[in-house]
Amino acid sequence: MNKLLLLPLFIPFFAYGQEEEGVDVAAERAGNYRTRDERREAGLGTELTDWLTFSGLVEVEHIREVNKFDGDLSDNYDFSTDPSVQAAFDISFLDIFEAELILEYTEDSRDPIMDELIIAADVGNMGFSAGRFYAPFGLYYSHFVTGPLLEFAETRRDILLIDYDILDVVELAAFAFDGESRKLGETKDDVGWGASIDALLIDGRLNVGAGYISNLAESDEEFLREEDNIFRRKVGAWNAYAVYEADTWDVSFEILSALDSFSELDLTEDRPKSWNLEAAYFPSNTFEVAFRYERSKELIDAPEEQYGVAFTWRLPNNISMTAEYLNSDYKKGFVEEDDDSFVRDGNTITLWIATEF
Known about the structure:
single chain; mainly beta; Porin; 16-stranded antiparallel β-barrel; two-stranded parallel sheet; globular; LbtU family siderophore porin
């Protein structure tokens, strides 16, 4: 193993001494974000005017992946480095309205990509949102840089969302979205919908929720891409999650599954399902260590079992860094490469550094 990859593991010991006195450990932890919503809010939030706020996030991710194949004695190495920049603009007007624009810059795009555009209004306990953003289906809570296998259900579309808050404890939501898939024999794209419930219990320490989405083919995974996104029948999905946060540790569990089988796919991969279990310990607001164990079933090109550890620390000048290791075990004869060989297992080391501005 490259000795440089081990260097970040020693940084937490230096970081302990940088903790500010009087800072609540639970209030500010080492990682920048644990959910997509938290990533959207990442940044320092600089007020440019009374009605416009700007936030930024710069990330660089280096991945070293080693895969082993059935019948092949040699390891297959793959290296990649992926820089990205997120720029967020938050506009408030007329007291009840808010607009948020999220732009993403990556190495592969010369021009900024509009990741999300949300126009929202709050009237009493009711909230209304419209625009292009991720459907509120799945929490995908994680302390790791590498997202959980659950993310196969992430769906970004033009969405209309209505939510209702009950005593700042329970939130109910329903949404509809303009799909890009359609039923066989029809000319119009499908209109999808979904619903979710989210609750904060035990003084906000326990977060539980569940959700439903009507058409899993609309997810970013594009299960029916080779069929031109044409389906014989719609396949919905459900999810449920629970997160408990204490002062110096947290634990989370989430499960997500298709409700039916895709008739267009092979029998071995036509009804994807996955669950993720994580636990994290943060002795200070500058360092945390997290553990993951997750499994999947019938999920295309994904390991059957995956587990690992991640070390994250917060450095001066709004910089965060993570070093993580994941071990992946694949179902025999499930994930095939171009040369007709099958992946048996893999090891991935990821180094990530980010700064907020």
